[in-house]
Amino acid sequence: MTIKRQFRSDRSIIPLLLSNFLTMVWALFEGWQILDVMLVYWVQSVVIGYYNYHRIMDLNEFSTDGFSINNRRPESTPETKKKVAGFFALHYGVFHAVYLGFIFNHESGEVGLSSVGVIACIVAFVLNHRYSYQHNRERDRHRAPNIGTIMFFPYARIVPMHLTILLAASLGSDSVTALLAFLSLKTIADVIMHMVEHADARRGTVN
C-alpha cells in the first residue's frame, strides 16, 4: 500500500496530525518554552505506553517469531504475555521517570502546568490514542501479531525527546528555532511510526 492510499484508508492519521498541529499552534501562540512542549509529549508518550500495555494484555493469539526471553524463544502462552507486559511497564516507566525528573529540574524555567493550551493538547492526545488503541485491539482479535514488535514500537517515541535535550542545550530552551525543530521532528516521527504500525496490522500477521 502506498503512502497516499494509506492516508486515505487510515482515518486515525488525521486526528494524530491535528493533535500535533494544535500543539504547534498553541505553543507558538502562547510562547511556550521547549519544556512545556516536552511535558505535553511526555504525557502523550505515557498514554501510548499505558494503552500499549493493555493492548499486550488483551492479545488472544500472538506470534513470538524473532523474540526471545533469556536467549530462548518463549511459547505463545498467557504467562508469556504477562511477563512481556510486566517488563514493558517497568522498563518504559523507568525511562519516563527519568524524563520527568529532567523536565521539572531543568534550570531554564518553570513548566506551564496551569496553561489551558497544555491541558487542551494533552486531552487531544489522550483521545487520539484511545481511539487508536480501540482500533488496534479490534484488529488484533482477527490476527496473530508479533508480541515483540508491539512491545518495542512505543520506544521510537522516546528518540525525539533525546534529540530535544540536545537541541535545548545547544540552542537554548527559549529558542523559536529549537521549538519549531522539535515540533516538526516529533510530528514526523509520530506519523511515520503510526503508519508503520498500522501497515503491519493490515498484513494480518506481524513477523
Detailed description of the structure:
The protein is 72% helix and 0% strand. It has 207 residues and is mainly α. It has one domain (19-202).
What's the short version?
It contains 8 helices and no strands. By secondary structure, it is mainly α. It has one domain.
Structural class: mainly alpha
Globally, the shape reads: globular
Span between termini? 18 Å
Total number of distinct structural domains? 1
Radius of gyration: 18 Å
Outline the low-pLDDT stretches. Answer: none
Number of strands: 0
* Continuous helix count: 8
**Sheet having the most strands:** none
Helix content: over 70%
Write down the overall mean pLDDT. 78
Strand content: under 5%
User: H/E order of the elements?
Assistant: HHHHHHHH
Draw up the topology in text.
Blueprint: H1 3-9, H2 13-30, H3 34-58, H4 78-105, H5 116-140, H6 147-152, H7 159-171, H8 176-202
